[in-house]
Design a protein that fits this description.
alpha+beta; three-stranded antiparallel sheet; elongated
Length: about 150
């Protein structure tokens, strides 16, 4: 019993240290990319949620809960969550896209972009990059010319 308590205490210490490191790393990366503070907080919370799930799994294993019991529990949870996210497929894709945009998006607020669709082209300046959308300001006045900065 003392060994289990010691292992759980060790896991808790490692969890707290790695959680703070994860939060500070995401904040540092977000500031280097000039990301919005709300976005940095959102991405940090999403990654921390996954990290917490791994921590709970490890604590359950230390407590002696069998793999079979954990497999039944997590498969039930994933089935319910999967059905819910399948019903709201756009939410799942937006969350995934939000993480990809945060870590790999080469544009920042204030940059000029050109979005090319089949029939339309939108030329504008990025005003805001949030978790679920990118706001681009473009001129709707006909004849007005927008030059991309060199």
């Amino acid at each position: 019993m003392m060994v289990q308590i010691g292992l759980i205490a060790l896991l808790l210490v490692v969890y707290v240290i790695l959680s703070r490191f994860l939060k500070s790393s995401v904040a540092l990366l977000g500031r280097s990319k000039s990301a919005n503070e709300v976005r940095i907080t959102y991405v940090s919370k999403m990654l921390n949620l996954g990290f917490t799930a791994v921590f709970v799994l490890l604590v359950c294993l230390v407590l002696g809960i069998g793999y079979g019991q954990l497999a039944i529990f997590f498969s039930s949870v994933f089935a319910v969550v999967g059905v819910a996210l399948f019903a709201q497929w756009s939410i799942l894709s937006n969350i995934t896209a939000s993480l990809i945009i945060f870590f790999g998006f080469p544009y920042r607020v204030g940059d000029w972009v050109k979005v090319v669709d089949k029939d339309d082209e939108i030329l504008g300046q990025i005003l805001e990059i949030s978790s679920f959308h990118v706001i681009i300001h473009h001129s709707s006045v006909v004849g007005r010319r927008c030059d991309l900065p060199q």
